[in-house]
Specification:
single chain, 2 domains, five-stranded antiparallel β-sheet, 2 helices, 10 strands, 32% strand
């Protein structure tokens, strides 16, 4: 059996989807009924991210979507599945648009050295992937690269990048992606330099 209920207290408005054990399967929490979401997390998503991307993935997931209540949760006012889904979608949108990225293991502005690993669409189109030596891949959008595709870094280029955000694509696959920008784009026609050579 699946249960949906809402518990509104002073300073919080919590919506839960649970099984018979009353452990939260999904949780949507707000600072007040009309405020931003503090949690929009799924136990299944968190378990999948942990299994695929180790503790770093789980930490980044909790930065983006908040932490689920631990153990059985106290029941509240029963709500319909449709009512819960509406609250879930509102919470999810809120966290995707406003979640703070100033904490966690890779806050915005973190500098990382990475190796350009592939340009799957070719230079000048969409962006490029970066191997950061982490279980999660980095991606640089074309807006952070030089206009002329000939000035894009080649595969194998090692340089420094800065974290701009971490994204999760739910649904369908949930793969996290560390979005980056180069910290020092060379002038047009000049080579990309290894951070150690600056």
């Amino acid at each position: 059996m699946t249960y949906w209920f809402r518990r509104a207290d002073a300073g919080s408005d919590d919506w839960f989807e649970t099984g018979h054990d009353r452990v939260a399967v999904r949780q949507a929490s707000f600072t007040d009924p009309h405020g931003p979401a503090s949690v929009a997390a799924s136990r299944d998503e968190l378990a999948w991210v942990l299994g695929q991307f180790e503790s770093l993935g789980a930490q980044l997931y909790e930065v983006r979507y908040g932490a689920l209540a631990g153990g059985p949760v106290r029941t509240g006012e029963p709500v319909s599945e449709a009512e819960f889904e509406a609250a879930w979608q509102r919470a999810r949108h809120s966290r995707n648009m406003t979640a703070s990225e100033t904490g966690g293991p890779l806050p915005r502005g973190t500098r990382l050295t990475g190796t350009v690993s592939k340009l799957p669409w070719g230079p000048g189109r969409t962006g490029l992937f970066v191997d950061l030596g982490l279980p999660i891949t980095g991606f640089v959008d074309l807006g952070h690269l030089l206009f002329d595709p000939a000035d894009w870094p080649d595969v194998g280029t090692v340089t420094e990048f800065e974290v701009t955000t971490v994204r999760f694509n739910f649904p369908p696959c949930g793969v996290p992606q560390i979005r980056l920008r180069p910290t020092a784009v060379p002038p047009p026609g000049r080579p990309w330099r290894h951070p150690a050579l600056r």
